[in-house]
Amino acid sequence: MSDYLKIHPINPQPRFISQVGKVLKNGGVIAWPTDTTYALGCHLGDKIAVDRIRGLRRLPDHHHMTLVCPDLKMISSYARISNETYRILKSLTPGAYTFLLIATKEVPRRLQHPRKKTVGLRVPKSSLTQAILSELGEPLLTTTLIPPDDEYPMTDPNEIEERFGHALDLVVDGGEGGMGSTTVVDLTGPIPQLVRAGLGPLDGLV
User: Fold this and answer.
1) Which CATH class is domain 3-196?
2) How many Å apart are CA 124 and CA 29, to the nearest integer?
3) Confidence at residue 196, expressed as pLDDT on a 0 to 100 scale
């Protein structure tokens, strides 16, 4: 069974965040609440952990996960960003958006779109997530915690532990999770393209 940590979502306890960081650095898979939903996450470079997440959700190899970053500085290490793209990102982060961008060589090829060479990135507005990222020192590779054959994400950390505790290394209880999705925006072209409407406002974007 997984470990279970109850962490304050606004003022996360440093000693618990340190434990989360150790689990991730050791190749673990965690469930934790972002600013939108509960998600599954792992160390970016750990292929075994990535495969575990795919197996847990029964995701095909072509399903692309998202890199969660603490800020634009880190995003710029993993994606090519023009001046105009930077302006857009700066105005919308942190927030409930996922941005599709051209990946740099820092992103493993297996995590890029095979043809477009893109990757999804986001900067959540979540004190808990920011604390985890600060402890980890690099992006989290994530996907929404939606059980196989279910339509909606799980919101109750206790239910997550009961259903998936056997397959996880850690469940972070940060309270009840949301059910909304991020707004997905393709920023690879000259004009932003809306891929999916979600919690992130569209005002002035497209």
Assistant:
1) alpha beta
2) 19
3) 96
